[in-house]
């Protein structure tokens, strides 16, 4: 039986320089200082916070159904509240990226399809009418919630208990906040009663609700009220139990509450959106190219030769018109949702290339974002990170802001172990560290963080709520003294006299002569191209794109509305929609050994091949003469990594006896826990803690929980000078581990010697 699953996430990460850490003395000062009192700085530090929220396209067009629950789950847990929380802090301005693929799925497959069947006043769903029209047309998890538990069939039970994204798809931190849910997860399957299954159904939806909805009544912009406090009781901070025996009516009511939150995601953003003309609003809402592609690779995959000169690349894929369509379609979807045009676009993982700037300009985009590693390799070199820059030529020039990776990763990784107040205090002090001296120009520090995935890993702070409230409270007070002023990129460029922010027009910005191609994941495109599986996926895509082009079916205009279903023009539309969807970066991300989904990569392989297949199917139904090839699975025996869901505690032990260790031995690798190859982020220990067995013996250790069967690549890094080579460095080669349970005790110990590969 498949149990707990840690869902995959597509995360805004990269390598970067180290952020100054507080000394022990400074930390003591933090503890004893009055809250919100900070040293005065001479100049103003402008802070640009971008919460990056995104989901891949989970649609199976052949079923007209989403194959994953994550758009819905994060809508109720994060997408609504990440905006709504700002209503209490009017002087705090932030930017929120809602990817086009996220918005499209949220509105079309949830809000529009559920709205006719949800009775808001009674908190009920007309299940008979719903199933008659849209059964099998949202996601399977909703159908199972609404179906009488006694009537669940084998397919339903497979989704409920065995699917890689089953009803226990939640991490250990979150599920421990619901002890009854945890008990159900650990109960043998053969012992489940009908009531157990009913509660499992409800808990899956309940646990993915923002905790504020569990505690009290919340009023939403569309005059909806959400209050689940009659279903659950908070028995201690962050721990909830059921107040009553769950019924089928409760399951119906649960979906009604879920619908109300999803229906208010766009309205809450619309109510707070920053209007550059009126200089009003708190949130600059931006978007991504339509299907979440790595835009430069759609424009011309050979751009990767610049940043990956040693990698074998696939046959050149170069379709600039498709790159333009991806941007134009995103702009049109945004205008429909928010009733104004976007001023910023953030491509997948901050993927950048000089060649695509003109495409953004042509669609009215005024700024974009990338990361520090890209800036540091761009020309001219030696530019300060804490400034925006102009990129492009003539009228085709836009502003580009660059992510401070170490500070951003504090929010994503380090603060998960802090209490909220402590984390917010550390963050503010880190920002003030970069404040300009008196007489120097102001600075813009950009923090770009995944605004959905980070919070579920906060151990001492339910959903990161204490951190966000403490952070925004402190920023409100620092705004009044003008020590830290939060701004959106558009606000910084155009100025806002109401808040004392002078303009910094693009024409006045220093020009980056050549923007280095790469992304926030790495200063190249290696997560998406260059490995065998990735290259094969690009070859498949090229074959389909050429076949569609040769078929004579012209692409529809991005301004066109979808035609009436099952007409000839609709099949033309759908063929191109399948093509744009197949260009999504999310399929390529999970191919190869550099990134692995904890539930297995085969799901993404299947979705990708489905979209490719639909290109040929829809083109054929349009009437084109097009031959569909045999599309074999791309996952090869070597790359196949079907993980069991059993979690294994893996203890890495690195023997560094005789080495000069200034600070620590660090470990890095191809997992989020291993900092996605970022050096000097994950410290090992030689103090008898964190899996270390003997303090001071020169053997540095650290323990992690990974799924059994996971493919781990890793290296060790010495923070000091290596005795053998006289230099700071890592082991001579990448190490590889397949997670296993050799003794059947749920543990695996990895014993390595620093600098020695056996």
Please report the distance between the alpha carbons of the first and last residues.
37 Å
Main beta sheet strand tally, sense and closure: 5 strands, parallel
Number of domains: 4
Looking at CATH, which topology of the largest domain would you report? 7-stranded beta/alpha barrel
CATH architecture of the largest domain: Alpha-Beta Barrel
The SS-based structural class is alpha/beta
Tell me roughly what share of residues is in helical segments. Answer: 25-40%
Radius of gyration, in angstroms, nearest whole number: 26 Å
Number of strands: 25
Q: What does this 3D model show about the protein?
A:
The chain is an alpha/beta fold and 758 residues long. It has 4 domains: 25-54 and 288-523, Glycoside hydrolase 38, N terminal domain (7-stranded beta/alpha barrel), CATH 3.20.110; 67-91 and 101-270, no CATH class; 532-622, no CATH class; 647-753, Immunoglobulins (Immunoglobulin-like), CATH 2.60.40. Strands 1, 4, 11, 16 and 17 form a 5-stranded parallel sheet that branches. It has a 5-stranded mixed sheet with strand order 12-13-15-14-18. It is globular. It contains 26 helices and 25 strands.
List keywords for this structure.
758 residues; alpha/beta; 7-stranded beta/alpha barrel; 4 domains; five-stranded parallel sheet; five-stranded mixed sheet; 26 helices; 15% strand; globular
List the helices and strands and how they pair.
Layout: H1 24-32, E1 45-53, E2 59-60, E3 65-66, H2 70-79, H3 81-84, E4 94-98, H4 100-114, E5 118-119, E6 124-125, H5 127-134, H6 140-146, H7 154-162, H8 172-175, H9 179-185, H10 194-206, H11 211-215, E7 218-219, E8 225-226, E9 232-236, E10 239-242, H12 248-263, H13 265-272, E11 283-286, H14 295-299, H15 304-307, H16 320-338, E12 344-345, H17 357-362, E13 367-371, H18 372-377, E14 389-393, E15 396-403, H19 405-412, H20 420-433, E16 443-450, H21 465-480, E17 484-486, H22 489-494, E18 511-512, H23 532-550, H24 568-582, H25 585-590, H26 602-622, E19 647-655, E20 665-669, E21 682-683, E22 699-707, E23 711-718, E24 735-738, E25 747-753
Parallel strand pairs: 1-4, 1-16, 1-17, 4-11, 12-13, 13-15, 14-18, 19-25
Antiparallel strand pairs: 2-3, 5-6, 7-8, 9-10, 14-15, 19-22, 20-21, 20-23, 23-24
Helix pairs in contact: 10-12, 20-21, 23-24, 23-26, 24-26
